[in-house]
């Protein structure tokens, strides 16, 4: 199994600012994903983080708003840019090796005021 | 777009009762996963079902994958207060190294003492 650490675990941010969330996996994984979970809701996939190339974004999510980096097989970052209260949510990092189950970090609870 | 419909959305029962949560889709998935999520935590995988008609048991939890691999159910026998949480089903289309998940909206289960 893989252990995923996310930082920060929570933050309160001013509108108009940006926050970068870090995701570290304790073993090499093939795929890394970023999800958003709004209050009382399920998980919505934001993008697939690709190593060494641009992330693949899902419908409704764009790189300018959610830039993602993945410099190596065990680390990725998600930035929430120019935040508004509507961005208040839990952001979750997920990782999986080829053909194996997906693991999740504990999430980052973001509140934008 | 693949969608997973989960029902019921909310469920409040007394300790000792039985319950069933359903997960339905019009799409076929290569596998289906069930997660439980507690407040402030990321989802934790309970089980993965792969074969149509498959039944898996995890103590008091019984998971079934439909014959056509489009639907699944989770049955809990003699629920305990520790079963309280958000139950999520997620369909996977894993081909090669891809392990992208589509999540249902979740069932928020409260087991009262």
Q: What would you say this structure looks like, in words?
A:
In chain A, 0% of the residues lie in helices and 50% in strands. Chain A has 113 residues and is mainly beta. In chain A, the strands form 2 sheets. In chain A, strands 2, 4, 5, 6, 9, 10 and 11 form a 7-stranded mixed β-sheet that branches. A 4-stranded antiparallel β-sheet of chain A has the order 1-3-8-7, with no helix packed on it. Chain A is globular. The relative contact order of chain A is 0.34. The mean pLDDT of chain A is 92. By secondary structure, chain B is mostly beta strands. Chain B has strands at 5-7, 10-14, 19-24, 31-37, 44-49, 55-58, 61-65, 71-76, 85-92, 101-103, 107-112. In chain B, the strands form 2 sheets. In chain B, strands 2, 4, 5, 9, 10 and 11 form a 6-stranded mixed β-sheet that branches. A 5-stranded antiparallel β-sheet of chain B has the order 1-3-8-7-6, with no helix packed on it. The N and C termini of chain B lie far apart (40 Å). The chains are: A mainly beta (113), B mainly beta (113). The A-B interface holds A 4, 30-31, 33, 40-45, 48, 59, 92, 94, 96, 98-107, 109 and B 1, 6, 33, 40-45, 48, 88, 90, 92, 94, 96-106, 108.
How would you describe this structure in keywords?
heterodimer, A: 113 residues, mainly beta, seven-stranded mixed beta sheet, four-stranded antiparallel beta sheet, 11 strands, 0% helix, 50% strand, globular, B: 113 residues, six-stranded mixed beta sheet, five-stranded antiparallel beta sheet
